[in-house]
Amino acid sequence: MKTYQYDLVITNGVCATAADIASYDIAIKDEKIVLLAPPGSLARADARNIIDAEGGYVTPGCVDCHVHLEEPAMFGNGSSSDTYETGTRSAVAGGCTTVSAFAPQQKKEPSLLKALRETHARALRNSYCDYRFHMLVGNPSEQALEELKAINTDEGLEAQNLFDPKYHSHSRPLVLESEATNRAIALSSLISHTPILLVHVSDPGATLRIWQAQTNGQPIFAETCPQYLFLTRDDLAAPGFEGAKCVCSPPPRDKPSQDAIWTRLRNGTFTTRLPLVFSSGRLSPTKFVEVVSTSPAPAKLYRLYPQKGSLIPGQMIWRIWRYSLFVDWVAHRVLNRGFGGGFVVLVPRFN
């Protein structure tokens, strides 16, 4: 069998990290970057595979810190829409090379380890990308609390009603999110050096309180979602099921709130996800990499850096082209989303 000097070479790429942008050829051996060379210099390298990036952006892969895959229902019947196979396939298609899924312990189950191992078994041979878990403790039994020690040492522990969609927003006003955020931050300050992660942030008042706490040195981390960057409460009022497709919690807010979320995304208050954000043109390539891959979350927050969030295996190439969004393109199972009919101009071409 022929032995190659490199396993993979990427030529003619524009490499973007959280620190800078530069043109390099990249050589990879044994899943590690071993050489950054002048552009075009490795076009004829002795490599098993050579990818011509054709001037596209080469970035670290996204780390998605919050996904729900193949979870049994915590309450009632049903399960998550996507399996590990479909969900991670969708992640890779969208530029994510690491996902943080959930390992839920059912209330009737006394063991945490059993829940973790069952979740890992579902993911192990069905995932297209790297994965990690958030544990959901449904039953803090004596057995579960005792198992936390083993999880820490052996498993790498770090840490039905239906309404008209437009009323979903009215019943969940901004002040509730702002108050809950302030309360969580205030309570966390009672115990020094207690980090907390606030998710699905949509309220300007909440973002201001998060920024103030971060400025004061509290270990507060936060993330938002694409719906708060691209949808508003006006979308909930669309007729029929078009409005229902935009229901989420918290609900989409008004346009000033949306602009405030973009501002906090640019200044580093929190993070979010991929092609829609890149295509908006509201973040520079370096800020985009910082937000979705590197610092302060997600790669550094979850101790995945520098294996993730820097230009080592897991990088992707973004192609500059205008693509319409059609629901039958997606790799995941949730087809009814509020972004259909729009377009993106930057999509992952290679992972």
Automatic annotation (TrEMBL):
- List the InterPro entries: Amidohydro-rel, Metal-dep_hydrolase_composite, Metal_Hydrolase, Metallo-dep_Hydrolases_sf
Amidohydrolase-related domain ranges (all copies) = 57-140
Which Pfam families does this entry report, sorted A to Z?
Amidohydro_1
Q: Which domain of life is it from?
A: Eukaryota
Q: Which GO terms describe its molecular function?
A: hydrolase activity, acting on carbon-nitrogen (but not peptide) bonds
Member of which family?
Answer: Belongs to the metallo-dependent hydrolases superfamily. Hydantoinase/dihydropyrimidinase family.
Name it. Amidohydrolase-related domain-containing protein
User: Which species does the entry assign this protein to?
Assistant: Lasiosphaeria hispida
